[in-house]
């Protein structure tokens, strides 16, 4: 047994949100004390209250808190922790953190710093795997990082090509490039994003495998050199190279292919002396050939689907291995039972290109007991989704005897999952699960781009939803039964570019509503059939009864009805006129840090020219000029926090004069 592996009694979880809670619950079941860490932004977050002790490690910015190794070690010492679990993200794959934990006399629940170093750098990992005979995608992983060398290497590899950050993961610092002319800009953008997210701008190049499946193999290894795999996961449904839906086993992997990929993953884990839970990631092409991409030397977000089909608690075995216990399983004893599918609920505006969103959680109602699903989350109604961290806020996992049974269970649960106050991808996930191509299991990494275009576009609500929103704006359900005057009451609502006028009048024991949109009237009758309670009421609309979840804030009315969340605002004619005129104001689409400013007051800019780069939830977002003109105003400075909706730049249109 390694000197690093020994029994421990108090576990510090160096992470936040749902993964911190998930780790602490298993630790408590095993009789361990738990310690949480939190930033100033997370003082009232649920993971703080899940632990036996919680210690503040700094301000909201990750580099000053969750990435602050010294502060975390001081927290462990002050709380009496003798072991550290890194969760995933932040410092989970940081060899310096693993080394610092060990040198501080604590048990690091994960592989050695040497193993993390070997596989944490994509270039080094690929060199190791090539030497071990692992099939790898052709590419460049050299030390020379000059643009000239990378451009020359790309020409030899051939386009399309993938640019990847060597230190990264989660799609950050990754760009798909189709032509040589686009490569310099992609290199600059990937370097900048990687430097911000991982502290390293080193890149590798790989030939792009078009329309592959993303398959990964879960491995477990102990300190005695015993290693096994737990089958594969299919993580092909992605946006921005980040996973959204994962399942196990893969519909495309035969028992023979599983055995071949699993054996390769185990050999690689043994070669680097790996200990704990880890994941070998592969691309699977249309011909059934697989290529090594990288190894994640940590627990994966999607570990829950493997737990569902194997019956094993992976966190439990991480903790047991770290305490020196041997794995009691042989490869032949691992059996896969049924099928499991997981979705990642994210705080994102899908129609705006999956733009991360922070804000207040006005309503959070995860699927109830009538749904046979697992929900891992770190949300609290009345709490906040901070803009500083990853946009994933919850995971929903369904297990069934068959893939179709798991899909149906999960679809039903997602359709009943309520998050109001911040934009989320809830409806988009439901659309993906319901799509016939997904139902057939015929997905690849281009699934969203090829099949979900309509679901990516802004949605316009039906007239029944608009009528319900108008009734809520008029005072329902706080003043239920709603007392309207004998004359018609009028409510004006807007959502994006759409505006409606709704006329309300008494109609027996209900309310008559006429919705006007584009000069067309739509009349109906509404009536409450179950009194409001805790933001939930049931309303009859025509011949159907709908469950409605309601919340209000300064921005207007938030509704969840018929499986979808909406946010309506009282219509403001002045705001509409500004939009129509094209004000030239470039505002922050979300709350985040200003990472770069590319222009100055007085500069002449072209339409679409980059003006400001914002960083939020670990991603960069470039704001561009709405039209050609001159910069007349700049607000904020690099490093400052910009609030959502705040003006950053003003561009004055330049009118070309007729030549004399």
Task: Explain the overall architecture.
By secondary structure, this protein is of the alpha+beta class. The protein has five domains: 10-109, Rossmann fold (3-Layer(aba) Sandwich); 138-207, Dna Ligase, domain 1 (2-Layer Sandwich), CATH 3.30.1490; 214-238 and 248-456, 2-Layer Sandwich (D-amino Acid Aminotransferase, Chain A, domain 1), CATH 3.30.470; 463-573, Glycoprotein, Type 4 Pilin (2-Layer Sandwich), CATH 3.30.700; 582-653, Beta Barrel (OB fold (Dihydrolipoamide Acetyltransferase, E2P)), CATH 2.40.50. The protein has 18 helices and 39 strands. The strands form nine sheets. The protein has an eight-stranded antiparallel beta sheet with strand order 14-13-10-11-12-15-22-20. It has an eight-stranded antiparallel beta barrel with strand order 24-25-26-27-28-29-30-31. Strands 3-2-1-4-5 form a five-stranded parallel beta sheet. The N and C termini lie far apart (88 Å).
Question: Brief overview, please?
Answer:
The chain has 5 domains: 10-109, Rossmann fold, CATH 3.40.50.20; 138-207, ATP-grasp fold, A domain (Dna Ligase, domain 1), CATH 3.30.1490; 214-238 and 248-456, ATP-grasp fold, B domain (D-amino Acid Aminotransferase, Chain A, domain 1, 2-Layer Sandwich), CATH 3.30.470.20; 463-573, Glycoprotein, Type 4 Pilin (2-Layer Sandwich), CATH 3.30.700.30; 582-653, Beta Barrel (OB fold (Dihydrolipoamide Acetyltransferase, E2P)).
């Amino acid at each position: 047994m390694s000197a690093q592996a020994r029994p421990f009694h108090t576990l510090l979880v160096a992470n936040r949100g749902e993964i911190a809670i998930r780790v602490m619950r298993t630790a408590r079941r095993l009789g361990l004390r738990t310690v949480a860490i939190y930033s100033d932004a997370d003082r009232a977050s649920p993971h703080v209250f899940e632990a036996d002790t919680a210690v503040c490690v700094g301000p909201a910015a990750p580099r000053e808190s969750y990435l602050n190794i010294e502060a975390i070690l001081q927290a462990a010492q002050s709380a009496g922790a003798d072991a550290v679990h890194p969760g995933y993200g932040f410092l989970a794959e940081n060899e310096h953190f693993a080394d610092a934990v060990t040198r501080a006399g604590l048990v690091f629940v994960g592989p050695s710093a040497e193993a993390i170093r070997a596989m944490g750098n994509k270039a080094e990992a690929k060199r190791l795997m090539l030497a071990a005979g692992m099939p790898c995608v052709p590419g460049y992983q050299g030390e020379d990082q000059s643009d000239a060398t990378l451009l020359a290497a790309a020409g030899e590899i051939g386009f399309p090509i993938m640019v990847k950050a060597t230190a990264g993961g989660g799609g950050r610092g990754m760009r798909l490039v189709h032509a040589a002319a686009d490569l310099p800009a992609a290199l600059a953008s990937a370097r900048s994003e990687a430097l911000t997210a991982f502290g390293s701008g080193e890149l590798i190049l790989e030939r792009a495998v078009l329309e592959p499946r993303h398959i990964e193999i879960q491995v477990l290894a102990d300190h005695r050199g015993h290693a096994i795999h737990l089958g594969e996961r299919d993580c092909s449904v992605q946006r921005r190279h980040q996973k959204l839906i994962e399942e196990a086993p893969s519909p495309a992997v035969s028992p023979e292919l599983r055995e071949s990929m699993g054996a390769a993953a185990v050999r690689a884990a043994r070669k680097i002396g790996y200990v704990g839970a880890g994941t070998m990631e592969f691309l699977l092409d249309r011909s059934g050939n697989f290529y090594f991409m990288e190894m994640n030397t940590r627990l994966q977000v999607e570990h829950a689907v493997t737990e569902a089909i194997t019956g094993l608690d992976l966190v439990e075995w991480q903790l047991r291995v770290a305490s020196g216990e041997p794995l009691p399983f042989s490869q032949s004893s691992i059996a896969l039972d049924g099928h499991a599918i997981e979705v990642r609920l994210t705080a994102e505006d899908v129609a705006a290109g999956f733009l991360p969103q922070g804000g207040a959680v006005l309503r959070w109602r995860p699927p109830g007991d009538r749904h046979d699903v697992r929900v891992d989350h770190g949300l609290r109604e009345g709490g906040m989704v901070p803009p500083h961290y990853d946009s994933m806020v919850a995971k929903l996992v369904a297990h069934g005897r068959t893939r179709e049974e798991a899909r149906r269970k999960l679809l039903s649960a997602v359709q009943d999952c309520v998050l109001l106050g911040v934009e989320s991808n809830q409806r988009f996930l439901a659309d993906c699960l319901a799509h016939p191509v997904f139902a057939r299991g015929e997905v690849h990494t281009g699934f969203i781009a090829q099949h979900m275009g309509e679901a990516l576009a802004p949605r316009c609500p039906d007239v029944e939803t608009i009528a319900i929103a108008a009734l809520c704006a008029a005072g329902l359900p706080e003043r239920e039964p709603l007392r309207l005057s004998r004359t018609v009451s009028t409510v004006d609502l807007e959502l994006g570019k759409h505006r409606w006028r709704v006329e309300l009048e008494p109609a027996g024991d209900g309310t008559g509503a006429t919705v006007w949109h584009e000069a067309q009237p739509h009349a109906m009758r509404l009536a409450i059939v179950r009194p409001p309670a805790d933001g939930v009421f049931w309303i009859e609309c025509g011949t159907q009864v709908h469950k409605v979840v309601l919340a209000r804030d300064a921005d207007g009315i938030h509704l969840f009805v018929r499986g979808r969340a909406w946010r309506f605002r009282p219509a403001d004619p002045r705001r509409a006129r500004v939009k129509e005129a094209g004000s030239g104001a470039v505002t922050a689409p979300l709350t985040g840090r200003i990472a770069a400013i590319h222009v100055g007051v007085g500069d002449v800019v072209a339409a679409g020219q980059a003006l400001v780069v914002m960083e939020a939830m670990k991603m960069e977002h470039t704001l561009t000029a709405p039209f050609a003109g001159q910069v007349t105003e700049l607000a904020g400075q690099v490093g400052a926090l910009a609030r959502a909706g705040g003006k950053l730049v003003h561009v004055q249109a330049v009118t070309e004069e007729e030549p004399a």
